[in-house]
Amino acid sequence: MTTRYTKDHEWVRLEGDVATVGITPYAAEQLGDVVYVELPAAGASFTQGADMAVVESAKAASDVYAPISGEIVSANEALSGAPDLVNQSADGEGWFVKLKAANTGELDALMDEAAYADYVKGL
Amino acid sequence: MAEAGPLKKLPLDALWRARAKKFGGFAGYDMPLEFEGLIAEHTWTRQHAGLFDVSHMGPSFLLQPQKQEQHLAGEDAHKRTASVIERIAPADIQGLKPGQVRYTMLLNSAGGVLDDFMVARPAAADSAGHLYIVVNAGCKEEDWALIEAALNGEAQLVRADENCLLALQGPAAVDALAASIPDGADTLRAMSFMTLERLTTKAFGTLIVTRSGYTGEDGYEILVSADAAVALAEALLAHPEVKPVGLGARDSLRLEAGLCLYGHDLDPATSPIEADLAWTIQKRRREAGDFPGAERILRELKEGPSRKRVGIRPKDRAPAREGVEILKDGKPVGIITSGGFSPILGAPISMGYIEAQFAEPGTQIDLLVRGQPRAGEIVALPFVPHTYVRKGKAS
Hints:
The complex is a heterodimer. Chain A is of the alpha+beta class. Chain A has one domain: CATH 2.40.50.100. Chain A contains 4 helices and 9 strands, in the order βββαβββββααβα. A 6-stranded antiparallel sheet of chain A has the order 1-2-3-9-8-5. The mean pLDDT of chain A is about 95. By secondary structure, chain B is an alpha+beta fold. Chain B has 10 helices and 20 strands. In chain B, the strands form 4 sheets. In chain B, strands 11-12-13-10-4-14 form a 6-stranded mixed sheet. In chain B, a hairpin with a 2-residue loop joins strand 16 (about 325-330) and strand 17. In chain B, helix 2 crosses helix 8 (about 245-255). Chain B starts with 7 loop residues before the first strand and ends in a 16-residue tail after the last strand. The model of chain B has no long low-confidence stretch (mean pLDDT about 95). At the A-B interface, strand 4 and strand 6 of A face helix 8 of B.
């Protein structure tokens, strides 16, 4: 089970054909205090790169894009009552959605952990 | 607005650089935006004391004309200098008592707001005919040009923005400031909200101190020379009740306090009456009607404005930010001008302008966030009560 990363700071972790998606600790740190997360409903479909969710920090709203194409299996209900989970555990309890991957091959084009670490270092 | 080019550094740049997590450009200055985190800084300010660097703003003085033979004494001197500001602002400046601070605004000929600012009358005997004026960072050059144009040889304008302007806000501000400035402690404690004192201190030289601020809390704003500023800021930060606070929390604090941010909640098309700031236009000026845009402003005072600034509470957790449309029965009736999250209420809050018939607190409205109408309610401002310290009869 490996984690892949996008240039927009989403992470995606595939188990079978279901991918868990969230934003990276770097993104959460940049956003600051997260106060609201708007997540898609189960059953909604997204193509790679489409607007999938919105994360609002105390100071601004930011779009979150679908890192791969697929259909939403479930959204992280815990975030509606405790959006600050994104700050506390962006790559764990603060996950956003699980989606059924339409084409797992899309992951190959995303960065692995080392490449993402290099990418962030260059920002 | 701010000129392009490299960002200007604050006199305390190095001090903040070592402590702040995020910096960013604001009104042409490189400013600390966040230290510990916006919500933590905000909450700390409401419960203890927050130290803000607002040196990007425009502190300045109006003094008597340069030529000694044109100088007047006492009340005559004050009235002459006050008349300069009364040409461009609707507050009763002549009526300021020695040591009193007032909030007012620069108006255009249509009664729209060009900036909001603080004006104070120093009390010291050697300050006859002086006014202390602090305008906003984003429009200070334009504001000072407007004041220059109103001088009519009756005063001279001296900008003081090479100094450091610190704001110490919160319930512990009085104790922390008094502890840091022992030779001014008694004076500082005795001050009422919206008053000014000039302090001569051993450690920090001359300070211009107003008991005022823009967070809804008790607190002070201190003009200190750039040379003495590091020592003063370090003395304050050494106090266990004081933490540094960035511009991010400054914005959420003023929004919670229901205070307007120029360029957002106030602009050249908006009148002080629409902005619910009628209280800033005292009786003498209303009767005289001798300020820019008086025709519109007096009419709106009499008949009521067609739209009003209101507080709004979205009912779910999604913030309704600047630019969000306000709907009533599906029809657009207003717009959000400031919106975000209230750390104290643990919920989103907004301010905006709405057609006057829907401005009553309790009115149910919808907020069009990302194309989706979401329920909200008009509420009274401020969202969190002010805790200003007023002593005796001072106003």
